[in-house]
């Protein structure tokens, strides 16, 4: 149980931190102001393009080898080397964790480093389970930054916290697989470079519950795929990625587009989600750290009732509680990452951090907002966006309650409970 | 201590409830969809106009006497009669409370009934402290719905939780008063009908701390008044009212525009804020009730893991906690309203409800969001907007911490503490 | 919905308050010291006697008509007049509520005023449902203070939160009823004057679930009744009343000892518990007020780091939160009492206060303990005992979770749920 | 940052676990029953003796080398070897941490292994700062288990959370030092083997604030030392160690009894408390684990409403929250231990765990109590005692609030704050 970053991880984390601060932060401030302007004045359409300065940041990051850092050790084959990761080899989950935290300080950073969801999860899926053809066609350009991808699982008509509820059909019909149904919260579908969706659908309704569904690669321009609308998360559209409601009407793709064969969606989802949840959780830690940082800055620089805000009422206690909560959650995540590296899977630990990280972040950010007064709610600070991000993560990839259920089942299992 | 609505109050509450459900709700759904569309597609500019159907709702409401119901008993002079309140006389705070709760179910309702902040607070101020000229010029058209008004107190450069920090100057110069400085979170300034601002400024820096500031009526078109930008609250601009950042550069108005004479701003603010905080608090209760209502509906109509969502995990416990919290908070507010009616002021009780109501609402809404899954975060349900409204109220009119300070001072005062 | 005490209630509350302060408080301090001494030095046996000075307090209280104040209006027949209540008539639940709060300041007071659990609940049961013979034999001496009684419902072998789990049998056999089984947390059994138990037992296992059990009056000296041991609540034995584990072996009493006839225990329990839960809840409010009072006193009189404790860190915020929580909970209870008076029953509201009151008390007392430092944990202050009392009430008469279930069922019922 | 136990630590932890389960648990159950009996029947005096079976457990533990395991690596000189630690050398804080957790499952275990507070802290103090004479006279017999010791710091008359408040004087007078004043919560003073107190007193009122106090070794039989009374913690006397209120009247000991010379008490206290707080915190983790273990056992073995308790309402969620909270806190403590080992001191991290550990334990134990119903409050389960222990730790060695202050100061210090 060794939580220290290897020298390489420490070096990369430091490089990422420096890049975020020196290169990304100024661009982010300009873009945030532009988004905020667009909201006020109704000119948001161009937010769905990728600004040139972001493309430029990507080029710079890649030139420094800060690219595809998420590629996991042992699964990366020649990819890390081919696609730019400094050092030419993938990182363990434990090594990538502090890098992910560093990218969490900026909502823009993950994309700049080609480490953003859902592309990372999709890439990992192809890396682990994709056929050579699937990899050539989609993984290469993804890692090269030439295309983006989307992930379509949740459905509007059913409680998707129970994934077995999914109703979109993905039926093998001769050499094809045919999809019919509707998805939403399809993240990434709004991106102008989005070329492919990974869609989870029902293939064998009579099979055992966890062998009914398949994951299918669907090119975004396949006839019958229609983005019905883009959804907002508490007013944020998360441009240029976005979250779409997408209908699939008699969508037909070759059966070779099914990843790892029909009926394996649940198995793959487990594999897909473990490392991704560690990334998410560590980015939440980065977000919480940034909020605490802002709270301390504001708390010391503003005065009320004759004192710095930090010295009023319970503010110091809340600063301490934030520090304790963040450090505890970070260690919990590092431990889960370590276990994932060591045993290949750590479902209980991953569910635990899926609960802990966004809740800690949400609480710390709420405090930071309160300390900022009205400013904390406005677009002048990144706190409102950060809060919304944390709130959304409490639902994304399974709500808190489902993950607590996983943890409780494991705990009661030690005492003989079967479920 | 009689908390029951009088027959008239009960009748008005029922009428308001019915109007909200039958008339306002369908319009609100259409407008919410339009706002949501505007956000997605960047056409928000026209949201700053008042839609015809809202003007129509106002006409209908007024025709039914559901107009200016906030006008307080005893202070309304002939206004309630002249400006349409059914029954022709003002309501006590206790009688208005359930009406306010009923309007809280819809973000649009307060405006439809001419009972929206900040116009209600401004109207009360003029009613209590305005000169006959001030009333003729601004109160009459406000109550008539011909103009809107804004309130400018908070400043961007200082911690405004300590109102003595305010730096905008309002200096009497001969027959004029001259304003210089900058305000933000000036609510109502974006409305096309906004005709006047009430601005709080520093007149006598050397006077005792609470006698330094004045409240000045500033017509919105006075030279030197400039809306620098509109602020968003977690992405919501609250069109068509909005919250502006407003600069005042050598703004000169007649000294007769000072309400009740220079140096009385703090005294007036206390008077202005008591009833308004009761209104706000009761609207929060309405909002929380709506969220709980939605949670129950969703909890019973969706299934996961073979059960209605309501029967999963801790959901029933949370429904019970929401019911208990809402009922407790409502009674606390009714008690404060009763005390306000009885004694004219109830600062400790008003601070207590200022803390309790939005926190309860925020917690209940958060639960309702969680139960709705992704839908709860989207614009398909009014929950994200409701949460933001509750979150903002934790800061508006003084942050939680300041109001807790008031309550604690009173409590320790019983034991001899001087401050 | 009128929550104001009637003049009579206000007068009685004031009289009780004054009596508690002037007469009971000094005796209580001496007794607490004696209990504390007994614990240290192992001489606790004599705590199971009633000290003469307590008997003397009872005489004084009765002489002032502060006796049997719990007797409910409308059900008291001639009892209130015969047995000493000042004014000679019973109080409504709403009128008794502030009296109960006043008795809650002292753990000794309820007994001094002949208003202590479980005797009050048992007396009410006999008042409402007892036969004339049952009343003559047990109600008269109870109200006269000549005997005490116990209530036996919970069983050690089953989860008694689900009362239908009860297994002690109470089988009618000719003219007798025969009891076999084991109870615990039989409150009052340790009192030297305890003359009778009301025992809840299973009479008709095949009847509908809520018609299987009976309530039986069992004289404490009936052969086969054995107190196996006295239980402690976090170290407190609650002498001289105590909580016993009691075995019943072939205990035979006349069938006329069944209250209201066999199979009616659940129906009676509902009737018994409504007012009693209001009393409990208001005593919790009294307890919480006392803790807050002590916290303020200590917070102002002790200094650390150059300031009174009250001014350090979040203490003022916590004082405010305590005040808000107490006032909210009190109003919720008064409302439940009012509804109980008005409609005869208010099960949802009573369950709500059963949850709210002890939780608020526990939280306020915990804060007061913390502010007192080590002293707060010791017997030098009544805080440790108060905390334990509040903690126990979270389980007594049904755990929080069961009562939340009642509240949630009612809430979901409004939306059509059947259970 | 390597949190894994070394092979030796793993082996010792396993041995301690096995010993606790096989040897200590049965004795503990018998003793708990005896204490409980004594409470009921007033025969507690003999609890102040050490039962023969406990002495016997000590002999067995020592024979297995499970003795003085707390002795820290690097400071133990020849002590670990001389006084029985298996392996003959001290453990790092990180290595001792899981051992401490294992001892936390039983309130008796620390004493059996000669690893109980306050003796461990006192021994460490002598180890680090004691003169050879002081070590020979007191450290040797302490480690040999022949004597016990007490620690006297807190005073009844002042808020001792601010240690500079201490008023007992310890004045150097020629070759002597003379003590006058009063202490309480002097832990260990009740033990029949208690031979010496370490007393913190004011020596130089005019010196800088943190150089005024000294630590003095005072033999318990020195004239003028008087145990005024033993204090209880929520009804628990913690026999046979106990917490005393002790008066010092003109107590005269040689000046050579001052540890490390006058004025160094604060410096020494820091050194004394770091490892001790890690021990305390890990024992809290052990306690919380035991409570969770009991909750799961009970939750699966009892039924209500047709289901195991664990499956009712929010119980599974609470089990998950307990697991997450415990694991997070444990990792936080291990990290602090690691830092203490690496840097010799980690005051911020130690303050953080001082806050986190007892709060987590208190919350988990409260849940376990609730799940046990009335049984959870009684002496039939160790939960009431466990809760009290956790509650007391929130005050012992500085209340939560003081430690949060330390953490906040460090956090704000990163942003330039001076205090």
From TrEMBL, chains A, B, C, D:
MF terms (GO), sorted A to Z: acyl-CoA dehydrogenase activity; flavin adenine dinucleotide binding
Domain Acyl-CoA dehydrogenase/oxidase C-terminal: 266-410
Acyl-CoA dehydrogenase/oxidase N-terminal domain residues: 10-145
Residues spanning the signal sequence: none
Taxonomic superkingdom: Bacteria
Biological process per Gene Ontology, one example term: fatty acid beta-oxidation using acyl-CoA dehydrogenase
Acyl-CoA oxidase/dehydrogenase middle domain location: 150-251
SUPFAM superfamilies: Acyl-CoA dehydrogenase C-terminal domain-like, Acyl-CoA dehydrogenase NM domain-like
Cofactor: FAD
Keywords: FAD, Flavoprotein, Oxidoreductase
Cellular component, GO, one term: cytoplasm
InterPro entries per record: Acyl-CoA_dehydrogenase, Acyl-CoA_Oxase/DH_mid-dom, Acyl-CoA_Oxase/DH_mid-dom_sf, AcylCo_DH-like_C, AcylCo_DH/oxidase_C, AcylCoA_DH/ox_N, AcylCoA_DH/ox_N_sf, AcylCoA_DH/oxidase_NM_dom_sf
Keyword Translocase (UniProt): no
Subunit comment: Homodimer.
The family this protein is said to belong to: Belongs to the acyl-CoA dehydrogenase family.
Family annotation (PANTHER family): ACYL-COA DEHYDROGENASE FAMILY MEMBER 11, MEDIUM-CHAIN SPECIFIC ACYL-COA DEHYDROGENASE, MITOCHONDRIAL-RELATED
Protein's UniProt name: Acyl-CoA dehydrogenase
Species this protein is from: Krasilnikovia cinnamomea
């Amino acid at each position: 149980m060794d939580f220290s970053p290897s020298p390489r991880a420490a070096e990369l984390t430091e490089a990422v931190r420096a890049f975020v601060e020196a290169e990304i932060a100024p661009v982010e401030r300009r873009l945030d102001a532009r988004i905020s302007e667009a909201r006020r004045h109704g000119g948001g359409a161009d937010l769905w393009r990728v600004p040139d300065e972001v493309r430029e940041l990507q080029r710079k990051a890649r030139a420094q080898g800060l690219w595809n850092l998420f590629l996991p050790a042992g699964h990366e084959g020649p990819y890390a080397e081919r696609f730019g990761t400094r050092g030419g080899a993938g990182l363990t989950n434990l090594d990538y964790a502090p890098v992910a935290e560093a990218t969490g300080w900026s909502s823009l950073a993950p994309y700049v480093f080609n480490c953003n969801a859902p592309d990372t999860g999709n890439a990992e899926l192809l890396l682990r389970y994709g056929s050579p053809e699937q990899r050539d066609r989609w993984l290469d350009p993804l890692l090269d930054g030439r295309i983006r991808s989307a992930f379509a699982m949740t459905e509007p008509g059913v409680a998707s916290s129970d994934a077995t509820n999914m109703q979109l059909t993905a039926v093998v019909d001769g050499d094809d697989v045919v999809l019919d149904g509707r998805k939403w919260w399809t993240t990434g579908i709004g991106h102008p470079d989005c070329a492919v969706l990974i869609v989870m659908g029902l293939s064998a309704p009579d099979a055992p519950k966890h062998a009914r569904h398949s994951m299918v690669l669907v090119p975004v321009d396949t006839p019958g795929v229609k983005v019905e609308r883009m959804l907002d998360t508490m007013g944020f559209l998360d441009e240029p990625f976005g979250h779409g409601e997408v209908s699939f009407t008699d969508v037909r793709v070759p059966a070779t587009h099914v990843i790892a064969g029909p009926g394996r969606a649940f198995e793959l989802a487990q594999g897909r989600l473990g490392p991704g949840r560690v990334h998410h959780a560590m980015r939440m830690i980065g977000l919480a750290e940034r909020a605490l940082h802002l709270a301390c800055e504001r708390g010391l620089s503003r005065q009320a009732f004759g004192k710095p805000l930090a010295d009023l009422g319970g503010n110091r206690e809340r600063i301490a509680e934030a520090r304790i909560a963040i450090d505890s959650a970070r260690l919990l995540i590092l431990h889960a990452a370590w276990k994932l590296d060591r045993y290949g899977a750590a479902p209980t630990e991953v569910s635990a951090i899926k609960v802990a990280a966004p809740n800690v972040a949400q609480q710390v950010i709420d405090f930071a907002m309160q300390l900022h007064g009205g400013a904390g709610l406005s677009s002048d600070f990144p706190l409102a966006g950060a809060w919304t991000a944390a709130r959304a993560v409490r639902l994304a990839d399974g709500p808190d309650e489902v993950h607590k259920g996983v943890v409780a089942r494991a705990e009661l299992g030690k005492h003989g409970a079967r479920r």
